[in-house]
Specification:
Shape: globular
Number of domains: 1
Largest sheet: 6 strands, mixed
Order of helices and strands: EEEHEEHEHHHEHEHEE
Structural class: alpha/beta
Number of helices: 7
CATH architecture: 3-Layer(aba) Sandwich
CATH superfamily: P-loop containing nucleotide triphosphate hydrolases
CATH class: Alpha Beta
Strand order of the largest sheet: 6-7-8-3-9-10
Number of strands: 10
Distance between the termini: 14 Å
Radius of gyration: 18 Å
């Protein structure tokens, strides 16, 4: 069953009086439970596509449907509420707040919900447990390795049990060992917890973990590859 449907999505930005195209009539379908890798050279439109899926940006033309919601037609307020409920975002540079502990960083998205303090604690400790860092809940980002920081960031992304996980170069700032651990964790979230993941990456080793692979070239979808056996 399709979770993501992009139809003829075009995105361009205005610079002075000039339209600069970034995506050109991109059509993609991603099924629920897929782990989609998105590759392409710098400037090909990968991060723009991820921002459109997250509702951070809007298409110039075309439609974006996620689940039963046509997100490209939502108001800003409705889009913010939708994003808080349905999207977990994992960034290359973690984006943890240095003055907050791991627990407090993971708890942040829950502060926008109606959960009690005890319920928030249960959710946070469950998420930290999934990423293998329950015993580091009181540590600050500076007391963690890069790989551990990224795992805290993943815990923050999954703590609300989002519909869709979006990962923008999640291993781009990590050494090979830490990158492998993060990719194994993403694969586990996909296979064991049935999370739908779309991951932008330059790294062919990261791309190998995806079940399907898309290639963008100058804003156009040039290739669609079925990746893992049985995916």
């Amino acid at each position: 069953m399709a979770l993501i449907e992009l139809r003829d999505v075009t995105k361009s930005y205005k610079r002075d009086a000039i339209d600069i195209p970034v995506l050109d009539r991109v059509t993609i379908t991603v099924d629920a439970g897929d782990f989609m890798g998105l590759m392409g050279p710098s400037g090909s439109g990968k991060s723009t596509l991820l921002n459109l899926l997250a509702g951070i940006d809007r298409p110039t033309r075309g439609s974006i449907k996620i689940g039963d919601t046509e997100i490209s037609s939502l108001s800003e307020r409705a889009l913010a509420a939708w994003r808080a409920r349905h999207i977990g975002f994992i960034f290359q540079l973690y984006n943890l707040i240095p003055v907050l502990t791991a627990f407090e960083n993971v708890e942040l998205p829950l502060l926008l919900t109606n959960l009690s303090k005890a319920q928030r604690r249960d959710h946070v400790m469950t998420a930290l447990g999934i990423v293998g860092l329950a015993e580091r809940d009181r540590h600050y980002p500076r007391q963690l390795s890069g790989g551990q920081e990224q795992r805290v960031a993943i815990a923050r992304a999954i703590v609300t049990d989002p519909t869709l996980l979006l990962a923008d170069e999640p291993t781009g700032d990590l050494d090979a060992k830490s990158a492998g651990e993060v990719l194994t964790l993403l694969q586990r979230l996909n296979e064991e917890f049935k999370k739908t993941i779309v991951m932008v990456t330059h790294d062919p080793h990261a791309a190998e973990r995806a079940s399907h692979l898309l290639h963008l070239e100058k804003g156009t979808l040039v290739e669609q590859v079925v990746q893992r056996q049985g995916a």
